[in-house]
Description:
The strands form 3 sheets. A 6-stranded parallel sheet has the order 8-5-4-9-10-11, sandwiched between helices. Strands 1-3-2 form a 3-stranded antiparallel sheet. Strands 6-7 form a two-stranded antiparallel sheet. The protein contains 8 helices and 11 strands. The longest helix has 19 residues, at 7-25. It folds into 2 domains: 7-76, Winged helix-like DNA-binding domain superfamily/Winged helix DNA-binding domain (Arc Repressor Mutant, subunit A), CATH 1.10.10; 83-196, Rossmann fold (3-Layer(aba) Sandwich), CATH 3.40.50. It starts with 6 loop residues before the first helix and ends with a helix. It is of the alpha/beta class. Helix 1 runs antiparallel to helix 4 (66-77), helix 2 (33-40) packs across helix 3 and helix 6 runs parallel beside helix 7 (154-167). Strand 2 (58-59) and strand 3 (63-65) form a beta hairpin.
Amino acid sequence: MPPTIPDIxxxxxxxxxxxxxxLAQEGQTVTSSHELGLRxxxxxxxxxxxxxxxxxxxxxGTGYQIPYLIEQLKHVLKVNREWEVVLVGAGDLGSALAxxxxxxxxxxxxxxxxxxxxxxIGTQVGEFTVESTERMAELIRQRGIKIAMLAVPAEHxxxxxxxxxxxxxxxxxxxxPINLNAPEHVRVQYIDPVVQLQxxxxxxx
Length: 205
């Protein structure tokens, strides 16, 4: 993949993939940038421009073959394989993530749930037994895990992130309401519902 592709383009690819998967589930085999644009509120020109970064996936006048485009987008996003993920934090949010069934069919599988609270260690969260964070690095190294989800309080997030990175993690999905310091080779994505609500209220009269 060319290194000059803007991150905003990459951020739209999973949205396209989700829409295409829904179309396939509805029994549709062909779509167009116009139809995708109507579904997603994105201009057809933008969709064509985004996809053109990765090659020609469709033909003018005939549209996109949905199964083929799904396959190609999964290849670009590297979700044509299953990624193991460690989940750190077994509180309310971590427990909800552990119970979430939407990871498995989209390229991800939780490999273990960790916490440092004595009252959490050994308890059952969904199908997982919560393990001590002291065993976290061992699992990461043994299994070659590259991705972690962080659902810990803000005051502990940096310390846990440092431990994850030292163990070999290259990508962190951070639910803690704090920005992390991470080396350049580590990708951090942030999910903070309050930030999104505050962004939304700006537009509400």
